[in-house]
Amino acid sequence: MQPEIRRMEPLMIIRTLTAALLATTALPSQSSLAEIERAYDERQTKLSAETDGIISYEDHTKLSDWFAAQLEKYLTAKPNAKDHTLARVTLATTYLNVRDQTAAQKALKGVDPARASMLDLLEAADLAARMRMDAERNAWIDKALAKDAPFADQMQAGMILMTRLVEPERSLALFEKARQSAKTDEHRAEVLWHLAAATREREDRGEGDYEKSLAALAKQYPKTLFGGIARDRLRAMAYEVGDDAVLLSGTAFDGKPFALKDLRGKAALIWFWASWSPECRAAIPHIEAMVEKFSPAKLAVFGVSLDETRDELASYLQQRPSKWRNLYDGKSFESPHALRSNAEQVPHMLLIDGEGKVAALRLFLHDAEEIAHVTETIAKTLR
């Protein structure tokens, strides 16, 4: 799945910057890859601010050249660094982005499969495919699959193989190996969940393949966490007005239990949101006004925060306390609450009636027309 991507910096190319801004000094030799990437991001942000959000190709190239130089120095100074392969792939990508394929190929050929992780090798293989380095691509895939890796890395590798590398048979074999080595049904169900997610992202998937994968998971492992998530997600994907809503429950941000069934007897807006989202922040006053208009005794809000960190949410709520409780588990779009409800972006809102049945779907509050529509829908539900 592809949830809303947050804080993604768009590629901005058009305009000029002063040479002084780009004439930066090298970072200390002990810098980590993360520090180099952070310095690059800071320079790019400053560059964007100085040019009203648009950067000329020339200045973009100068900045990329600076980044490449820092990466080259890092690779020379830290030949045994744990992130050496990732740094080399980043360097090759940087050269490729400024259309220097010769330098990109040279950088990538320096990858040492013996020292690289499974995921780093697959990243290298993906980049090699873009440059038609077929021998290296195939060799690195073979080497990657021969490595031991943590479960999470294996699942991500299966996704990369299924999608970006277009190696469905190898992906299926990896998932099946993981399933057979699993010790519990919970673990086996999780493998099938990741397989279903990879199947969904295949460009050549057949109609209904993803739904069939979820149905098979729910049927084979009905008592597991992911079996239950698959079952509920299928329901949410097929929601129609009048259907029973998925009964979410868990721990609220205040640390106490919170369940949708606790609101039975009231209409409720199920509200998936995040404090970092401008659209969510803009919608909150309108939701508060609706609760006030129809009375808290008749209309409730069941909040589900998809913030990534507790501190992030706490900081926002300290400035603007919430007038309703919010489920929160810190897992963002990978939260079981979001997965069960097929909530893949924020804001995501639906209305249920006092009996827990779906009254309205895909509700938004972007403009006056949508606000009026939601208000009218609530009024009809409460009649």
Tell me the layout of helices and strands:
Blueprint lengths: L18 H4 L10 H18 L6 H21 L6 H14 L3 H8 L9 H13 L3 H12 L5 H12 L5 H14 L3 H17 L7 H12 L4 H13 L11 E3 L5 E3 L7 E7 L4 H17 L4 E7 L4 H10 L6 E2 L8 H6 L6 E5 L5 E3 L7 H15 L1
Parallel strand pairs: 3-4, 4-5
Antiparallel strand pairs: 1-2, 3-6, 6-7
Helix pairs in contact: 2-3, 3-4, 4-5, 4-6, 6-7, 6-8, 8-9, 8-10, 9-10, 10-11, 10-12, 11-12
Structural summary, described in words:
The protein is built from 16 helices and 7 strands. It has 383 residues and is of the alpha/beta class. The chain folds into 2 domains: 19-236, Serine Threonine Protein Phosphatase 5, Tetratricopeptide repeat (Alpha Horseshoe), CATH 1.25.40; 249-382, 3-Layer(aba) Sandwich (Glutaredoxin). α13 (278-294) links the parallel β3 and β4 (299-305). α4 runs parallel beside α6 (118-130) and α11 (209-220) crosses α12. The longest helix has 21 residues, at 57-77. It starts with 18 loop residues before the first helix and ends with a helix. The model is unreliable at 1-24 (pLDDT under 50).
Q: Span between N and C termini?
A: 38 Å
- In the predicted model, the low-confidence regions spanning at least 5 consecutive residues are 1-24
Q: Which structural class should the secondary elements be placed in?
A: alpha/beta
Looking at CATH, which topology of the largest domain would you report?
Answer: Serine Threonine Protein Phosphatase 5, Tetratricopeptide repeat
- What is the total tally of β strands? 7
Query: Rg from C-alpha positions?
Result: 25 Å
The CATH class of the largest domain is Mainly Alpha
